[in-house]
Amino acid sequence: MKISSFVVLCILILLFNCSKSPSIETETEEEIEEPTTPTKPNILFVIADDVSKDAIPNYAEGNSKANMPILQGLMNTGITFDNVWAYSVCSPTRASIITGKYGIKSGVIEVGDQINTSETSLQKYISDNTNNAYSTAIIGKWHLSDDSNDALTMGVDYFAGILSGGVKDYYNWDLIENGTSSKNTEYATTKLTDLAINWTQNQTKPWFLWMSYNAPHTPFHLAPTNLHSQGNLPTDTASIDANPLPYYVSALEAMDAEMGRFINSLSNAEKANTIIIFIGDNGTPAKVAQSPYNRRTVKGSLYQGGINVPMVVSGKGVSRMSVREDALITSTDLYTTIGNIAGVSTTEIYNSISFSKLFMDENTTQRNFAYSEKEDAYTVRNATYKYIKFTNGTEELYKLSTDAYEGTNLIGTTLSIEATEAKNALIAEGNIIRN
User: 130: helix, coil or strand?
Assistant: First the structure.
């Protein structure tokens, strides 16, 4: 009986241990397999071609607004910036972002200027300062040189898109992918989004995607009807020329829809770990510009309609939600700002001053001056005044705080003490930048 009791006791102990161990092992396995949040956020940078404030929601300029629920959602969960200056045409804006330098320093001031591949690109800057922590891609419009391999030469891991300023037909265009060209007949915005989805799904590291949509740049072709709300418009040239605005808007709405498709291709964990920056590259083309802008003050000009572009930031690391920000920012500032997002500590380099602290703190002071330029003129502004100087000697001065769209040139009038001091300060700042 004693032996039997001992055997029974041993069996009970064995059964008890066996019944408990699977639960412990399962919990251990779950802890090991549970995904951890990456320490570095993914970065989606969307640059829209020929897009100013007048057709974009949440800005006062313009009357015919594109229906852009994805962008509106980013505005609702992030920051809408009011005083961002870019360049008046696309190439120098893109160069200013990828180099952190004004055109006078990088050599890219107008369309057709070639970027020097010895410049330290934003992508290489991030790689060099984060131990190659990010996968990088530029998908879409390049328009910084005539060589399709230059993006790769400058440290971008993957390039797919359009080499020049635009295409003749958004349904029949040349796609360049890592130096290889092929004919594509899919609507460009959709194809570029497909490429972006495929690329991000194959990444094993945090990624920085420069998404450079070409539409709504000319030609004003009607986007696929399932991607916009402008209706089944005629597609003949005469109809488009008679009223190009709805065609332009259809491309904007299609871009928004495809942005949404890209974002929704991400897992919930990826979405939560992604910061999104949306910006226009220059003013609206004259044919589709809306009031208060006019043909003289839009794309190609240094007036507000030419260089004051929309920008929205939302997502990982942005705690200020559904707010407007009036800090002075230039397109060069994206260099250090995106660098900070990626983990680079430097907040000021070249002509770039980071505004990343604004993502959490509205009281952070950034710039006292903003600057932009063309081949024949430059402009500088502070919080109140804006000065323009042309190479022929012509000067213009506007008090933007009361004359937001530059209706009254103060040069030639009797300047107040305040205006005189502002003019002198703006000229001095311009001289510092340009010398």
Answer: coil
